[in-house]
Design a protein that fits this description.
mainly beta; 3-stranded antiparallel sheet; 13 strands; 29% strand; globular; disordered C terminus; Extracellular protein; signal
Length: 235
């Protein structure tokens, strides 16, 4: 009986990682637009190691459907937050949030966290001043520090408004949206991996980056997420 309880406890732990709760993700149980028949109650699970459901666990196909309509409107240059829930943080790791305007063919990184992500439920980022207006895919990606080498990814439909006058704090014009790096992708059968026990040091984290790590390591293998150097990291 004790062995059975241990096995069941381990199974529960492996299914209870982390998931995006705001903005509402595609197929999420938290998304009021998703009918019960389409809800994924294993949203906390990582992407398949084969890479067959990258990006967005394949759920970005809902983008133009009623169950995938936008549930939040942001403005270029504004500061916003996303929230996470779950019980297995794997001692943190490194995360990114990115935007795509071409149905997930390409992604631009808005903010990177190297270490300590996702140890708290709420995270703040600021959009570049010239973030394009329109409907976009928002992605949260996570590379866990401890445990199997995995990539976690949840996506949401968001609406971006153009910057209006001077109602928002000015940001440096040297950090335009167009120059942002591509989303880092690893552990999904793409030849790029991360080391267990270390917070992955993104090859190009972008200009908005926070470093809160006791130990980092670069990715392993052949990783194509840019070689451009970022400005000094904020600790």
């Amino acid at each position: 009986m004790k062995l059975l309880v241990s096995i069941l406890g381990l199974a529960a732990l492996t299914q209870a990682h982390m998931e995006l709760t705001w903005p509402y993700a595609f197929r999420s149980k938290f998304n009021p637009n998703v009918p019960e028949s389409l809800k994924d109650y294993s949203m906390t699970s990582p992407l398949l190691g084969s890479g067959s459901n990258y990006p967005c666990k394949g759920y970005h196909v809902d983008f133009n459907k009623p169950e995938g309509k936008s549930t939040v409107t942001w403005q270029a240059g504004g500061t916003y937050n996303f929230t996470l829930s779950g019980s297995a943080t794997h001692e943190g790791g490194s995360c990114q949030v990115s935007l795509s305007y071409d149905q997930a063919k390409t992604w631009k990184v808005v903010h990177s966290w190297i270490g300590s992500c996702p140890l708290t439920p709420s995270w703040t980022f600021t959009l570049p001043n010239d973030t394009p207006a329109g409907d976009a895919l928002f992605a949260w990606t996570w590379f866990n520090k401890i445990g199997n080498r995995e990539m976690y990814m949840n996506c949401a439909h968001v609406t971006i408004l153009g910057r209006s006058g001077f109602d928002l704090d000015e940001r440096s014009p040297s950090d335009p949206y167009s120059s942002r790096p591509a989303q880092f992708v690893a552990n999904v059968n793409n030849g790029c991996g991360t080391l267990e026990g270390k917070d992955v040091l993104f090859p190009n984290p972008g200009p908005d980056t926070e470093l809160k790590s006791l130990g980092t390591a670069p990715p392993t293998g052949s990783c194509s997420a840019g070689k451009k150097r970022a400005r000094p990291l904020a600790v």
